[in-house]
Amino acid sequence: MNHREVEATREFVARFERGAEWRAEIETLAVAERIDAGVFSAHGTVSDAEVLFYDQASERHERVVFDEPLTVTSCIGNVSWIEREDARTGGRHEGDGTEEDEHEGPGGAPRTGRREHEIRAYATFARPSGQALAGRLRGATVITGECYVRAFDGSFERVPDGETGIDTLDL
Description:
Strand content: over 45%
Radius of gyration: 16 Å
Helix content: under 10%
Number of domains: 1
Structural class: mainly beta
Number of helices: 1
CATH superfamily: Hypothetical protein, similar to alpha- acetolactate decarboxylase, domain 2
Largest sheet: 8 strands, mixed
Order of helices and strands: EHEEEEEEE
Number of strands: 8
Shape: globular
CATH class: Alpha Beta
């Protein structure tokens, strides 16, 4: 295991805007408050969600779309930095490992060839029946959402893991 000590420097509580993209709300806070390293937890409701599931056999992320209202019982993750290179010009980047990822960044944004915030989020959702759904959150449309963010000193950087190619924290 690799690890390093961090010192919490600031804490924030935020309420998401209805109709906004869930991860984009967290990124907006990170950019506005210049958070280079942090962790968050959030909960609320969404009108839809798209998650990724890592298939170890194929070594790719598979998309799962839920086009229905869901309760976000828990969403946890971290704020970091990642170097995004344009795959169309031969740049390297693992992203989510989906076919579309060859030309897109998070949420379908075009690759930029620059350092960007990475909001790595994992969420558990509940259907009205109580059935739980979960995965690495790619996107969701906010109905309601509240978030707690703890910022740390320094920055977290993501680099490709040598075995899987998945971008992991460089500790």
